[in-house]
């Protein structure tokens, strides 16, 4: 008997393209589950540091990724899920720039990616899934009926991140932030393991100059046309 798979909308793109906010809104609007795959790479980096594992020790990192003791606890609609690592709430800790940078270092390793693959696919459950990441449409859910690739200029992404951090009371330097974004993009796009790029059948949406509502409307239109 063939099993019908739950539908998936994949949303890939660089950091700061608005993916996080848009995927949360999209999941809420559709009443579907949400996979924040970046959180799994961030958690792998954080757990490694806590366990004293060096970020270039590939085989130890594979163990860390394969045995991550993580749960995502539901929060009120529109808020990011609470992320619990080994019983501790690390929701804010995994959002720091340093954790994002460490995540992108461990994410270049194919065996680490392999160790996280099934955990990501397990999120595909009825009534459907919105999957946020870099390789959702190319590697993790290549058969997804709707694939979106969300971009924005590096300057716009740095500006958004700057405002987010300012609001959170974090003191940041705009040019340092722009440089960090460029370095991370470079690493994500040029790695050999699942590089950041649109799937051949992805719809590319450039969110530069668009409001979140406009981006959400375009994503919803893509879903309803599928
Ligand atoms: O999306 P987020 O900023 O949380 O991702 C952190 C890092 O994790 C990215 O810079 C990228 O290197 C890596 N990542 C990945 N594949 C994904 C999601 C994130 O390689 N599907």
Automatic annotation (TrEMBL):
Gene3D superfamilies (UniProt xref): P-loop containing nucleotide triphosphate hydrolases
Biological process, per Gene Ontology: nucleobase-containing small molecule interconversion; pyrimidine nucleotide metabolic process
Coiled coil feature spans: none
EC number of the protein: 2.7.4.25
SUPFAM superfamilies: P-loop containing nucleoside triphosphate hydrolases
Domain Cytidylate kinase: 9-224
InterPro entries in the cross-refs: Cytidylate_kin, Cytidylate_kinase_dom, P-loop_NTPase
Main enzyme class: transferase
GO cellular component: cytosol
PANTHER family membership: CYTIDYLATE KINASE, CYTIDYLATE KINASE/PANTOATE-BETA-ALANINE LIGASE
Designated name of the protein: Cytidylate kinase
Lineage, opening ranks: Bacteria, Pseudomonadati, Pseudomonadota, Gammaproteobacteria, Pseudomonadales
Gene name linked to the record: cmk
